[in-house]
Amino acid sequence: MLVVAAALIDPAGRCLMQQRPADKRHGGLWEFPGGKVEPDEAPVDALVRELAEELAIAVSPAALTPLSFAADAAAGARPLVMLLYVARAWSGEPRPLAAAALRWDLPAALAGLPMPPVDVPLLAVLRESLARGDALA
Ligand SMILES: Nc1nc2c([nH]c(=O)n2[C@H]2C[C@H](O)[C@@H](COP(=O)(O)OP(=O)(O)OP(=O)(O)O)O2)c(=O)[nH]1
């Protein structure tokens, strides 16, 4: 299963995380907004679509910078690969259309939140990248 997600970074360097609804797999955990890539869909197109559906924001494909990826092959679940992109520009104010809640925090403050396994190494990469001031992130 291929999943795409975005770290939306605001001008203060805070990142948006959303809380998964209680009735879903990983319910209650905090995740990057995004979702599954449909067959025949390009990953960035899937991410633009998911960000519109979940947060009611418009993001240009050119504003999505690939950062890293991670895999999760937990027993009993479909093996998952998640691609994480960074975005610093979008239009609209993110609204929790699909999530139980949204929160903005510096990546260091997000590290202690309960999140799906695949998100943990990706948040660490994001944190290091922002701390280094990488042009990419
Ligand atoms: N969007 C998103 N999904 C994540 C993250 N980490 C993680 O393990 N996932 C998993 C949860 C889901 O199984 C899948 C994304 O599916 P989805 O968001 O499109 O659909 P869904 O919640 O309805 O998923 P599902 O109930 O059908 O499994 O990836 C993350 O940071 N962001």
Automatic annotation (TrEMBL):
InterPro entries: MutT-like, Nudix_hydrolase, NUDIX_hydrolase-like_dom_sf, NUDIX_hydrolase_dom. Keywords: DNA damage, DNA repair, DNA replication, Hydrolase, Magnesium, Metal-binding, Mutator protein. It holds the Pfam family NUDIX. Residues 1-126 form the Nudix hydrolase domain. Its EC number is 3.6.1.55. The keyword Metal-binding applies. It comes from the Bacteria. Its cofactor is Mg(2+). Belongs to the Nudix hydrolase family. It catalyses: 8-oxo-GTP + H2O = 8-oxo-GMP + diphosphate + H(+); 8-oxo-dGTP + H2O = 8-oxo-dGMP + diphosphate + H(+). CDD domains: NUDIX_MutT_NudA_like. PANTHER family: 8-OXO-DGTP DIPHOSPHATASE, NUDIX HYDROLASE FAMILY PROTEIN. This is 8-oxo-dGTP diphosphatase.
